[in-house]
Amino acid sequence: MDKTTVFTLQRMKEKGEKFCCITVYDATFARLVHAAGAETMLVGDSLGMVLQGHDSTVPVTLEHMAYHTACAARGNRGALLIADLPFMTYATAQQALTGATALMQAGAQVVKMEGGVWLSETIHMLVERGIPVCAHLGLTPQSVNVFGGFRVQGRTPKSAKSILADAAEIQDAGASLLVLECIPSALAADISEKLQIPVIGIGAGPGTDGQVLVLHDLLGLCESPPRFVEDFMTGRDSIPAALKAFVNAVKSGSYPGPRHCYTE
Ligand code: KIV
Questions:
Q1: Pocket test for ligand 1, best of 21, 22, 23 (most atoms within 8 A of CB)
Q2: Quick check: 50 and 219 in contact, CB under 8 A?
Q3: Pocket of ligand 1 (CB under 6 A)
Q4: Where would a tag sit more exposed on the chain, N or C end, judged by fewer CB atoms within 10 A?
Q5: How many Cβ atoms sit within 10 Å of the Cβ of residue 189?
Q6: pTM confidence score
Q7: Within a 10 A sphere around the Cβ of 148, how many other Cβ atoms?
Q8: pLDDT tens, position by position, 93-102
């Protein structure tokens, strides 16, 4: 498989081909995820929950992210490697530049940040300096304390309108990718259709251009999985087979199905 770039994903969107992303935190899983055919991998700050045992991503630091990004980059054989800027490392544009530089130097090819309109100057500044950006809207886990829990977003007309406006703004600011998490499927499909940049969904229904799942969730290791999670390990005899099953299910359109989706 050739190296995936943001342009590969752009072309896939234009052709209507679905692409996959799986979170990774180390070299071995980065190798396996690429071998399974996922075009992208995310060193997610979800590592705060699935590796470190916290109940949110808030305690994760830039040092943690740089360490796991470097580990994953060593095992990656050609997937586009996205890494999360963790909580409070991009509150100002200058902080974002420092943090994004550390992640890019650790091996990331794109940095991800949670937020919309308020990030547009920061996104513009990073992109102008050679750092591609993936924005993240909807249920943005670093704001769990504002939301009062991991709740589906975009269910009221006001909230849906605001997510749509944020999406348009981050595209105008120069973001290359957008993650939409836990929003009604119809809203995610509408945003994906309106934006030119590829949109990656998690708990956002089948209408996005790509799908992402947390590695531990798709391997059935989550204690109380949210409804959008499918355990791809059940019925399979190896981790590579489960990873491949996720990739195939996304590409064939069988995942996510109606039981994984949220409505208004
Ligand atoms: O940190 C993470 O794993 C993420 C995904 C849930 C998209 O941001």
A1: 23
A2: no
A3: 23, 42, 44-46, 84, 179, 181, 202, 212, 214
A4: N
A5: 18
A6: 0.98
A7: 7
A8: 999 999 999 9
Cis omega (within 30 of 0) for bond into 206:
no
Active site residue 264: no
At 2-35, the pLDDT tens digits run 799 999 999 999 999 999 999 999 999 999 999 9
Separation in Å, CA 239 to CA 33, 78, 82: 10, 20, 22
Q: 42 C-alpha vs ligand 1 centroid, how far in Å?
A: 7
Cα-to-centroid distance, 43 and ligand 1 (Å): 8
Any idea what DSSP says for residue 259? G
Q: How many helices (H) and strands (E) does the chain have?
A: 11, 8
Rounded CA gap, 63 and 21, in Å?
A: 23
Candidates 214, 215, 221: which one to mutate for ligand 1, based on the most atoms within 8 Å of Cβ?
Answer: 214
The amino acid present at 46, given as its one-letter code, is: S
Helix or strand holding residue 193 (H, E): helix 185-194
Query: Locate tokens 């600011």: which residue?
Result: 173
Alpha-carbon distance 22 to 111, whole Å?
Answer: 15
Catalytic residue among 63, 121, 169, 181: 181
The 10s digit of each residue's pLDDT in 152-174 is: 999 999 999 999 999 999 999 99
